[in-house]
Design goal:
single chain, alpha/beta, Metallo-beta-lactamase, Chain A, seven-stranded mixed β-sheet
Length: about 300
């Protein structure tokens, strides 16, 4: 069974550990390495399981601790070239991927999904193992067909519900910042997230609302809005409640055969600057998309 440890989620910092069969990957590290390591201890995460750090984009609330954590754990950082060049991670082992690529780390098969955000080359992740499928989608101004297909295909969704529109309009942010947040390259608000979850409804899917604004949203408001739209019981929708809160939940895969991969064009050998971590795909195995997800 997969376990998801949400250690931080929001503009103060973001970090999630995805674990399966004694191996794990970190998605973003937007707090100090010391803080995140203490949160891992709290949630019972053995740092020796971690095989790589995956990065969605270069904003500080997602990369602040990436370099120190990668060096401390001696693991590679995996992200797009645009994200890496726009970040200041220091000396790390870096393995790039293209947004057309699918790659593997240990038991995890990872599909990066392009997002719409004011960053260099941002993406979400669809992470699959033989035990379950997870969609992690935050920091985007809209959901396209690829993201909605991932939401429909997954057993658990960590999905952005950043703001309540009324709270944003009546809050302290200046109009220019409000327009940025509301724009197609900003963030998702509670109602639009709820509508996307309704369009991709699955009775067995776990819903975890992520990246809630401390200024323009509240956990109860986000859960109630999404519950009202989707018809999912409010108590079945989870999120972090306060700064420093952490959560662990299990991903229960539905009975079905694992996705097969559809071959795509082979990337150049220069796509990998260093030896990939144990379990990672070689360049000849990259750019393969699991069945059920649309090709880029």
């Amino acid at each position: 069974m997969m376990e998801v440890h949400v250690l931080a989620s929001g503009s103060d910092g973001n970090c999630t550990v995805v674990e399966c069969d004694g191996e794990a990957v970190v998605v973003d590290a937007g707090l100090s390495c010391r803080t995140l390591m203490s949160y891992m201890d709290r949630e019972g995460v053995d740092s020796k399981m971690i095989k790589a750090i995956l990065v969605t984009h270069e904003h500080a609330d997602h990369v602040k601790g990436v370099g120190p954590m990668a060096r401390r754990l001696n693991v590679p950082v995996m992200c797009t070239l645009g994200t890496f060049q726009s970040s200041q991670m220091g000396a790390v082992e870096y393995i790039p991927y293209d947004l057309r690529d699918c790659f593997s780390v240990g038991p995890f098969r990872v599909v990066p999904l392009p997002t719409y955000h004011d960053a260099a080359e941002p993406n979400a992740f669809f992470i699959e193992t033989d035990k379950g499928k997870l969609a992690m989608v935050t920091d985007t101004g809209k959901f396209d067909y690829r993201i909605e297909h991932a939401l429909k295909s997954c057993d658990a969704a960590v999905v952005e519900a950043n703001y309540d529109l009324e709270m944003l309009h009546n809050g302290p942010y200046p109009p220019s910042l409000q327009r940025r947040i509301e724009g197609d390259h900003g963030h998702m608000w509670n109602r639009d997230t709820g509508m996307a979850l309704k369009r991709t409804m699955s009775d067995a899917r776990k819903i975890f609302l992520a990246h809630l604004s401390r200024t323009n949203n509240e956990p109860d408001v986000a859960r109630e809005t999404v519950a009202d739209i989707t018809g999912v019981r409010r108590l079945k929708i989870d999120c972090l409640e306060f700064q420093g809160d952490t959560r662990t939940f299990k991903v229960k895969g539905r009975r079905r055969p694992p996705s097969r991969c559809l071959s795509g064009p082979r990337p150049s050998s220069s796509a990998w600057s260093r030896r990939p971590p144990s379990g990672a795909c070689s360049p000849s195995q990259a750019r393969r998309t699991p069945a059920g997800l649309p090709a880029p």
